[in-house]
Each structure stands twice: as C-alpha cells, then as structure tokens.
Batch of 2 targets.
Target 1
Amino acid sequence: PKPKAKAAKPAKAAKPAKASKKEPKVEKLRPTGLPEGYELAGGMPRYIGWLINFAWNFGVLFAALFMMASDTGLVTTILLVVSVIMMILNVFILPFKTGRNLGQFVSRIKYVNYDGEKSNPIQGALSNSVGILALFGFLFIFVSTSDIGDKDAGAGPIIFTVVGGIFVILYIVNWQFAKASEHNQGLYDVMFGAYLVKHVPTAEEKSS
C-alpha cells in the first residue's frame, strides 16, 4: 500500500514588527515674546529710573570736574574716586547681586527674560552702561581730537577717538533698536531676550 501523503503544515504567521521603544525627539522651540503675567514698564517709570541713575552715576563726577577748574588738591581726587566707586556699584555690583540698579528699585521696574525669571546679569550691566560709555565717548572725542597729528602725543589721541566713537555708535544703535522694537527693547535686550517690566513687590518686600 502507498504511504499516505503528509498534510502540509500551515505556514507560521509572520510576527508583527516590534515598535521602536525610542520615540523621535521633538525639539522644543524656545518661547519668545513678553512672558505671561508681566506688563511692560511705562514711559514715566523708565524716565524716573533714568533720572535717578543719572544723578547717582554723574552727580559727584560733575562736582569733581567743576572743582578741577579751580582746585586740583586732595578733595577733588577723593571726589573722583568716590564717583567711580558709585558707578561701579550701581552699574555692575548691584545688578549682579539683585538684578536691578538703584533707579530700577526706586521706579519699581526690573529686567526679566522670556521665562519671567531674572535676566542675565551681564545684560543688565551692558544695558545700564550704554549711557555712561556714550558720555565718556564724547569726552574722549572732545579731548583727543585736538591732539591728533601731534607727534609728541603719538597714537594715543587716535586710539581714544576711535574708542569714543565706538561708544557713541553703540548708544545710537541701542536707541534705534529701542525705537523700532515693539517691546521697547534695546540692542542688548534683544540679544539676551530681556524685557523691562513693572515689578510687583512680594509679601516679604512689602513687610520689609
């Protein structure tokens, strides 16, 4: 007798491909624009802050320069040293420690980034020093241009004139940025994504 033909085995169903455990990374876009819950500082607080800073930074310096015309003694030297210390304190030390300078404390405004956090201290120092550097730039240009071409003076007048011109140009560029910006942001504000907003005192600040 012929052997019976073996029944064909059913083909094994193909295993479904395993889903990849690694999900594709989605890059989060950096948020931009004024952070929620904050309001831009108005024109009056900005002006008050500028006025306070101007008086603090240059009041003693102008007094020292005025006295230099008639007195070049110890008193004038002390005033010059004090004026430099006051500038450094207001432009660099105070913003690095607290995020605000004296004028911003008085006018209740501050710089924040797009997350609503305290902005980069370097941005605050650069933004606060634009006007000071521009003033020194004018002084450099005014004093040095008359000595350009003097062989005894060397290259010093040219260097001071160029540096002064750079400081003045930075001030103009910063002013143009603020004028064209929807949020009144200067050059360094745009670079660091900072906004000058109204400061709402916390409970601890109100009680202190």
Target 2
Amino acid sequence: MENLEKYIPHKSIHLIDTWIKELEVIVKISKSRTSKLGDFRVLKSGENQISINQDLNKYAFLITITHEIAHAFVWKEYKRSVKPHGKEWKNIFKMLMLNFINTDIFPEVILKPLGKHLKNSKASTSTDLKLTLALKKYDCNKKLIIADILDGETFSVHNGKKFVKLYKIRKRYKCMEIESARIYLFNPLTTIDLIQ
C-alpha cells in the first residue's frame, strides 16, 4: 500500500487507512490522467485496487480517494447488482465524507461547496463547478481554465485551435474559433493557454 501521508490532510489519515485495511484494497498512485481523477477496479487476481492521480492537491485527493473507497464498499456489499453511482454509492460516499466535514480537515472555502455537493453527489467532482473552483485554489501546478480569463481574450486549446472568449450562456462559455468563425460552447473548467 502507498504511504498516503503526503497526499491527504494529516487528520484524515487514520480513518482512510482503517477503511483500506478493512476492504483489503490496493492503493496505487497514478500519473495524471485527463479522463479521470481516480478509479476503483477488481483485478483479474480478484484483488480490489484504487488508483488516484498523483497531481491532485490534498483536499481533492481526499475527496477522490473517499469516492473510490465508497465504490469498494458498494462492491463488497452489492457486487454488480446496483448502479456504479446509484443511491447505494451516494449514501455510502456521503456517510464516509461526513467524517471529514470540519475545519480541522478542509478549509472553510471548500466546506460550503462540498456540503452542497454531498446532498446529491455526481459521478465526478469535476462536474461540480463551485466545488472544483474551490479545490483549484489549492493546486500547486495551477492550470489556466476558461473561467479564469476575461471576455474578449484569445486562447488556444490542446488541439491547437485558437478562440476568442465571448460571453457566458448559463453554465458554458460561448467562444468563436478564429480561423473558421464557428461558435463553440466550452465548459468553464476547460484547460487553456492564453494567447497574448
């Protein structure tokens, strides 16, 4: 098992270790993955494994590992008879997370959006804009996202296309691709490079 002390808040270590031992789950620290922050899987050997991205700040790491531990508890109890992010998972995830909802573990700025998130947790914390923005404040390697720039600024995305940010429509940003003048809608959390 990985030593988790450098990845999560100190006062959460004992409980996380207790759950990992109870579930007999292997914890693997993974390179950064753009498609997911962590996962739970049953290996061909029958062992259970959780993997978590190494580049998460300690608060995002704690939420993610607790999310995956909830999957392990659901697997132990129900195997494949329930949905992966169904009511059983939501209830267990909320129950586990309530152990950490205090200022000894999370900064106040994270507690409010985290509390709202736990009322009806989604499959990924990344879909919760307020929680993601609160967690992002504690990232070491801050990545620029579209929500960080002003309307009218020019940016590029990973495929090299260049855009002008126009304005926000409900939950997304309307942007125009410079070369084609086509309009695109972007998630506020889209990672970008600012063009000066």
